[in-house]
Amino acid sequence: MAIEVGGKTYETDEEGYLVNLADWTEELGGEIAKSENVEMSPNHWEVVNFLREYYNEYQIAPAVRVLTKAIGKKLGADKGNSKYLYELFPYGPAKQACKIAGLPKPTGCV
Amino acid sequence: MAQVAEALEQEQDAQSVVKKFMFVNRKAPYGTIYALEGLEVVLISAAFDQDVSLAFLDDGVYQLVKGQQTKGLEVKNFSPTYRALEGYDVEKLYVEGESLEARGLREDQLLVPVQVVSAQEMAQLMEQQDVIIGF
């Protein structure tokens, strides 16, 4: 599979996850979000950027439980809970937000 | 009602059996897939609320050495992921002192906080486990 942005084609796997992390740009993330029917707000970007930072530091996409806890620590308890995160990303914050962030699917996520 | 809730909770507690899992790492981080696969299994198992610990013996101690460079090998350097274990509530990392020493390594050269134990202590720790999985 592939996704097209600005006349360029980027390779994705069969579930729509970007194959090359380095390909990611905010524009590309926005395009993936569209295909997921997610309208990106500053709150969405905050989570996506958080995931990219987490990946840079640990080289993995976090499990949803770990993501929730880490977000709570950094952005406060009102954001570090699954209700808030599922409202932003109805098909699963880890799965969907990782896809938009250009990260691989979280380990252990089926 | 409160009594019923309490009884249910007790029942649930009795049913949820927490087992002691130890993942034993004996191989160098690169060259085979064991170390990376082992780490992934640990991350997945952390989701099941079990009592998880990791042991590093033999060449497995190299997995935790700071400053790994994998460019020449053209594989991903996954060593930063060991630092994510804390966030997964996996905090029991045991390293066999003899294995470190035999390779000229010291605890301060490792990238995460660990407990260095002797071979004898390691044997005792293994004795206490319900499940031991080797990689």
Report on this model:
Chain A is mainly alpha-helical. Chain A has a single domain, classed as DsrC protein, C-terminal domain (Arc Repressor Mutant, subunit A). Chain A has 5 helices and 2 strands; from the N terminus they run ββααααα. Chain A has a two-stranded antiparallel ribbon with strand order 1-2. In chain A, helix 1 (26-35) packs across helix 5. The mean pLDDT of chain A is 90. By secondary structure, chain B is of the alpha/beta class. Chain B has a single domain, classed as DsrEFH-like (Hypothetical Protein Ychn, Chain: A). Chain B contains 4 helices and 5 strands, in the order H-E-H-E-E-H-E-H-E. Chain B has helices at residues 2-15, 34-45, 97-102, 119-127; strands spanning 20-25, 51-56, 92-96, 115-117, 131-134. A 5-stranded parallel β-sheet of chain B has the order 4-3-2-1-5. The interface between A and B is medium-sized, with 12 and 14 residues.
Give a brief rundown of this model:
The complex is a heterodimer of chains A (110) and B (135). With 110 residues, chain A is mainly alpha-helical.
Main sheet overview of chain A:
2 strands, antiparallel
For the terminal residues of chain B, how far apart are their CA atoms?
49 Å
- Broad structural category of chain B: alpha/beta
- Would you give the CATH topology of chain A? Arc Repressor Mutant, subunit A
| Tally of helical segments of chain B | 4
By oligomeric state, this entry counts as heterodimer
- Assign the structural class of chain A, choosing from mainly alpha, mainly beta, alpha/beta, alpha+beta, or little secondary structure: mainly alpha
The CATH H-level homologous superfamily of chain B: DsrEFH-like
- Strand residues, percent of chain B: 15-25%
Rounded average pLDDT of chain B: 90
Total number of distinct structural domains of chain B: 1
Average of per-residue pLDDT values of chain A: 90
